[in-house]
Design a protein that fits this description.
The chain is α/β, with parallel strands linked by helices. The protein has a domain of 56 residues. Helix content is 44%, strand content 13%. The protein is built from 5 helices and 6 strands; from the N terminus they run αββββαββααα. It has a 3-stranded antiparallel beta sheet with strand order 1-2-3, with helices on one face. It has a 3-stranded parallel beta sheet with strand order 4-5-6, with no helix packed on it. β2 and β3 form a beta hairpin. The two termini are 26 Å apart.
């Protein structure tokens, strides 16, 4: 459980910085909505009628079946298929953690948080020769991580600092 605590602290920090940036950007633009923090610590928006709404973000950094890529789709059919798959699989989310350069136009209705988490994780796992590189590699990678929970956060911290 200690590993989840470290992750939660890092995740909370990233969300706080992002939302702080949103609040600063909101102050600099004219809009009917304003951002503030209520007595319970929630980020709230207030519309022109002074109605407060709590801001709630649900994020993911993996979309099952969808491959994030910096390359454009090969043709318009592939573009439409990827767009439909992406929209279907991300419908419960309003925020995505993703690597820089993987953004597509059809993702514009989501909040993007750009981070190096996935490339660091996959770079680390790619260097482990005992892990297979077959179609079911995700299963073996997840089992490897589950067996080594205590060391993974330390490796990420070291990778980020380099």
């Amino acid at each position: 459980m200690k590993n989840y605590g470290v992750f939660n602290i890092i995740f909370s920090g990233i969300c706080f910085l992002y939302l702080s940036g949103c609040m600063n950007a909101q102050e600099s633009t004219s809009s009917a909505k304003t951002w503030s923090i209520d007595d319970e610590g929630w980020i709230v928006t207030k519309d022109g009628k002074n109605v407060e709404n709590r801001f709630f973000a649900i994020g993911t950094w993996h979309v099952p079946g969808y491959v994030f890529t910096q390359e454009p789709e090969a043709d318009s059919l592939a573009y439409v298929q990827n767009e439909l798959l992406f929209k279907k699989k991300t419908s419960p989310f309003n925020m995505l953690f993703m690597s820089l350069g993987n953004e597509k136009e059809y993702m514009s209705d989501k909040i993007h948080i750009l981070n190096p988490f996935s490339p660091i994780l996959h770079g680390y796992l790619d260097r482990i020769e005992s892990l297979p590189d077959s179609a079911d590699k995700d299963y073996y990678r997840s089992q490897y991580i589950k067996k080594r929970k205590p060391t993974i956060p330390i490796l990420f911290s070291i990778s980020i600092l380099r």
